Amino acid sequence: MFQSFESTSGPREGPGRLAALRARMADAGLAGFIVPRADAHQGEYVAAHDERLQWLTGFTGSAGFCIVLPQVAGVFIDGRYRTQVKAQVDLAAFTPVPWPEVKPGDWIRNALAAGVVGFDPWLHTAKEIDEIALGLAGSDVRLEPVTNLVDAIWTGQPAPPAGRVVIQPLDLAGEAAGDKRRRLAGALAGAGHSAVVLTLPDSISWLLNIRGSDVARNPVVHGFAVLHRDGSVDLYSDPGKYDGAARAHLGDAVRLLPPSGFGAGLRALSGPVQVDRATAPLAVSDILKAAGIEVVWGEDPCILPKACKNPVEVAGAAEAHLRDGAAMVEFMAWFDMTAPGGGLTEMDVVTALEGHRRATNALREISFDTICGSGPHGAVIHYRVTKDTNRAILPGDFVVIDSGGQYADGTTDVTRTVAVGPVGVDERAAFTRVLQGMIALSRLRWPVGLAGAHIDALARVPLWLAGQDYNHGTGHGVGSYLSVHEGPARISRLSDVPLQPGMILSNEPGYYREGAFGIRIENLLVVESAPSLPGGDAERAMLRFRTLTFVPIDARLIDVAALNPAERDWLDNYHAEVFGRIGPRVSPDARAWLSIATAPLGDRTAIPGNRA
User: Fold this and answer.
1) Which of 3, 19, 61, 204 lies 20 to 30 Å (CA to CA) from residue 590?
2) Pair 173, 258 in one domain
């Protein structure tokens, strides 16, 4: 199995570790220390070696940080983790802080009259530190880069990862690594820059057409790289991870060097050198500036082309989703027949779903730990079941199942909310509103140039009209056999990156009632050009979404009378396509179940276990 159900942390150890950190702070003459979730590569998911925030606090979320001061330790978490953090940290030792509503600089200023707050410059970006410093401007508190204090007290800290590197072949990558290097180097030379520093593992993996296993669930290779204007690359990555085939694939234009030489390599560059202020560790620009090398701020040049998948990558994603959809249908048919009999737990569900994906004989990894939240656990947006939290699935429960797979041809992410037995009026109404929001985005056409911030509200309107909402973005980018969460575009009120053809994003509105239930419905979509319509402006270029995910949505949970005709037509057409595409790929029993689960809404009385 890929997924473990062991509790990797808990609130019990937090107070002792916090006391040890404060003692180390006092020895160093510091009034504070910042402990981020991020590693030196600023990845959302980190290796066990870099789980400093989890080790100190017990919090396991994929985003956040802790600021430790003498009298208070604030754990900064966004809306996805407001419920989760309260169960994972010792609230007598750590104080949850709503972020980004509360800015870290303002919080420090209010909690600390004077002193030095330390931070590890390899774990924070220049943008991040500048923003905190701006909040402290005019105070008697200052920030100072220091060696990592958590590493100094972490007994038994795991070793850095050393996963084997594999080649992403041309028939799946769609563009040769050499062509990518030359294309990006041409833009670099055109801007008058001598080199660009790359620190994001998925950028380096994409650029060089390699994949790895340094981070669980994410097939990326840890390392740093410098792309020169001539198209050559200095790759600072553990040479022991590269076998003969991988080294031959890199070729002579990619110089494989040990990570320990990265600092010296930076100091040997000639400027101007491009650095991404939002993703590179502050230490990178500090080293360059100290060596007298001109630093030019600019976005990592891999981020946008990586997000805009080429036709080969889009075709691979489509095939991966059909394969994954068949596994999901086999699982859902099993669940629908098994759950009413009782005896299932959340762990049983996770294990069964992983088994169906593994049965495809194409699964490389799951794309994240499967979320299976039943009843009140469904309201914990990124819930992860463990042996300590495992819950029996009971009649009347809503069950949020959010999962995905890593396949060589694509990365999947799908959420379905299912139920066991009759459900309440409130739950049915909320489910229908979430579905209406998901349909609104699925049907959307929009003018070229709009960003996620311009369309996020459309998924929320049905909930807003009922005085409801959800505390997460509506969609995130997804990689091509890379990270399941990929920038730069997303569907969020905070995203100003224009949507472009080839981008793959999730569409996942939800609703969560703490202590009661949760709902989320998620499909992945690819952006493509929209054909002109009769009567439309022929000169106005438009875009649209094409759905990649083909898994039925439980019609038994819908208040059909609340849907308008266009919404009903969309769902009926979607379900017809699900049956047409997935039906031939599943077992006879699953196909029989699927034919009923995808029946038109007008025929829903035929669905077994109808909950109307």
Assistant:
1) 3
2) yes
Q: Is the pLDDT assigned to residue 235 strictly greater than 70?
A: yes
Distance of alpha carbon 254 from alpha carbon 424, whole angstroms: 60
- Burial class (CB within 10 angstroms; exposed 0-12, middle 13-18, buried 19+) of 606: exposed
> Could you tell me the pLDDT band of residue 1, with boundaries at 50, 70 and 90?
low
Q: Report the distance separating Cα 451 and Cα 391, nearest Å.
A: 40
Beta-carbon contacts of 6 under 8 Å, excluding residues fewer than 6 positions away, are 386, 387
pLDDT at 612: 37
Domain count of the chain?
3
In this structure, the number of other CB atoms found within 10 A of the CB of residue 249 comes to 19
Residues 182, 229: Cα–Cα separation, whole Å: 8
- Residue 106 structure tokens: 């303002």
Q: Is 172 inside any structural domain?
A: yes
Q: Return the bridge partners of 234, or none.
A: 226, 255
Average pLDDT over residues 47-58: 94
Do 427 and 491 fall into the same domain?
yes
Residue environment code for 513-544, b if the CB has 16+ CB neighbours within 10 A, otherwise e: beeebbbbbbbbbbbeebeeeeeeeeeeebbb
The yes-or-no verdict on residue 610 having pLDDT over 60 is: no
pLDDT one-digit tens code per residue, 115-173: 999 999 999 999 999 999 999 999 999 999 999 999 999 999 999 999 999 999 999 99
- The amino acid sitting at 330 is E
Neighbours of 341 (CB within 10 A): 8
Cα-to-chain-centroid distance, residue 17 = 29
